[in-house]
Amino acid sequence: MAALKEWAVVCKALEEGRQILLLRKGGIMEYRQGFKVKHNKFLLFPTFEHQSKESIQPNYLSMLYSVIQNTPTNGKNKITSYAEVADIKEVSDKSILRKLEKYHIWNDRYIDIRMNYNSKRPMSIILLRVYKMDNPIEVDVKSEWAGCTSWIPIEFPVHSNNDGRQPVLEDRRFNQIVDEIKEVLN
Predict the structure, then answer these.
(1) Class for domain 2-185, per CATH?
(2) Element (H, E) at 135
């Protein structure tokens, strides 16, 4: 099963239904081709590198501090959520991203940094349907997973029919937010 590496604070915001989108450009290892959504279903692998209070909106600072206090120290990581891609859009206009600020945790400064990185590539906006796993899994962190790469393989079967996972937002609320975001993007 594929897993997408994402800041732990973002994983927490996704799990709490406080955001349903990701803004991705790609890391150093993906510079030439930019970020690609290689999988429509994947685990969310929380990372603890690079996330900082200088990059997020002030109302998410307490969430960041909570996540930092729970940073794994034993060479293991806990995966507690799973996502399915609902839609993908590419955006090159910073003003559109500013209109989406209530749907994600990043601040304007960080969005500017990400937009300016590999400036010929657009920002990918990935709308996600996120599921909280009833039985989180603990994995040994492998050295080959280190660094700025987005996708990693994790041996874990994902069952069909939402077995063992619950959507973090009920259908009506999720669809309402998707419609609001799509209105901004169109």
Answers:
(1) mainly beta
(2) strand 123-140
pTM, to two decimals: 0.86
- What's the rounded mean pLDDT across residues 66-74? 86
What is the pLDDT at residue 152?
Answer: 73
Q: Which two tokens stand for residue 72?
A: 């794994």
C-alpha to C-alpha distances, 76 to 24, 56, 73, 114, nearest whole angstrom: 25, 26, 7, 29
What's the average model confidence in pLDDT over 101-111?
92
Tell me the domain boundaries of the chain.
2-185
Question: What's the CA gap between 100 and 28, in Å, rounded?
Answer: 25
Q: Residue 145's closest CA among 66, 52, 27?
A: 27
- Gap between the Cα atoms of 110 and 179, Å rounded: 25
Q: Rounded to whole angstroms, how far apart are CA atoms 186 and 69?
A: 40
* Residue with the two structure tokens 């874990």: 156
DSSP H helices in 53-170: 61-69, 94-99, 108-116
Read off the DSSP letter of residue 70: T
Q: Whole-angstrom Cα distance, residue 42 to residue 29? A: 20
CA dihedral 137, 138, 142, 148 (to 10 degrees): 70
For 165, the token pair is 């996972």
